[in-house]
Design goal:
Layout lengths: L3 H9 L3 H7 L1 E5 L1 H8 L5 E6 L26 E3 L2 H7 L8 E6 L12 E4 L5 H14 L3 E5 L8 H7 L7 E5 L1 H7 L4 E10 L10 E4 L8 H4 L4 E4 L20 H14 L1
Parallel strand pairs: 2-3, 5-6, 5-9, 6-7, 8-9, 8-10
Antiparallel strand pairs: 1-4, 2-4
């Protein structure tokens, strides 16, 4: 039986202020929970309707899930009814995990870093985290106004990639001002990324979905780059084509070109 205090705590974690207050976040779904169990994230509690879905669990301990060694009492079997009380999903999965928000250490400046200036859409951030994982970008720096990476919608969209990407929130302009790396910013009127020679390491900045990169952050951009529209495009059904790309889509193209060198 899940205690009422536990139910209240877990439900409160749907809001950012309580995640920050308790230093905890909720992850739902077999894939996401498994990924987090194998990562640097500490475990607070795991609620599961069928312990067999947790790989490595033999009823008395975990094999391979390094964060659960010695913490067997963090796993609690619950009924589907109890899981529905805890879940924020319309159709709950078989497992819900509560994990500890890690301390953000120093950033690794030996490779490319992706920086986000006020990206607000959870789906966009989740997809960008997944792209960082795909392209081997280990560090993601976000402005303080960027959507919380522990938002449930961000976690779902990241498909477990958040387990392998270190994410920090800071005053982005201040961070760029101190960074000893070339800073590239994505703009509509920048130099084509297809003709730009990028170095082995640097910082790529992407801006807000509607307003782009803010003037405060733009002041620290060394090179403005863009994804050019193909020449000779035709109007579709008597209307102009798209004015811009989705920020996650732009991230995919720019990171691909940067990794291509």
């Amino acid at each position: 039986m899940v205690a009422k205090s536990q139910i209240k705590l877990i439900k409160s974690l749907r809001q950012k202020k309580y995640r920050n207050q308790h230093g905890l976040f909720v992850a739902e779904g077999i894939k996401l929970v498994r990924e987090l169990l194998q990562s640097h994230f500490g475990v607070y509690r795991i609620f599961v309707t069928d312990v067999s879905v947790l790989e490595g669990y033999d009823g008395s301990g975990f094999k391979g899930a390094k964060n659960l060694e010695g913490y067997i009492d963090t796993v609690e079997s619950v009924s589907e009814t109890e899981l529905r009380k805890l879940s924020g999903l319309t159709t709950p999965n078989t497992v819900l995990g509560v994990f500890k928000i890690p301390e953000v250490g120093d950033f690794d400046f030996s490779d490319w870093i992706l920086a986000l200036d006020d990206v607000r859409d959870p789906g966009n951030l989740g997809t960008i985290i997944r792209l960082c994982d795909w392209f081997g970008i280990g560090h993601l720096v976000c402005s303080t106004k960027t959507v919380d990476c522990y938002n449930p919608k961000v976690l779902q969209a990241s498909m477990g990639s958040i387990a392998r990407v270190r994410i920090g929130y800071t005053d982005l302009a201040g961070f760029l001002g101190k960074a000893e790396l070339p800073v590239y910013g994505a703009f509509m009127d920048g130099e084509s990324v297809y003709t730009t020679k990028t170095p082995e390491k640097g910082i790529l900045v992407l801006g807000n979905e509607a307003r782009g990169i803010s003037p405060e952050v733009e002041a620290f951009v060394d090179m403005r780059i863009s994804i050019p529209k193909p020449g000779g495009r035709k109007e579709r059904f008597g209307k102009q084509t798209a004015e811009s790309l989705n920020v996650a889509t732009a991230s995919a193209i720019l990171l691909s070109e940067i990794r291509r060198g």
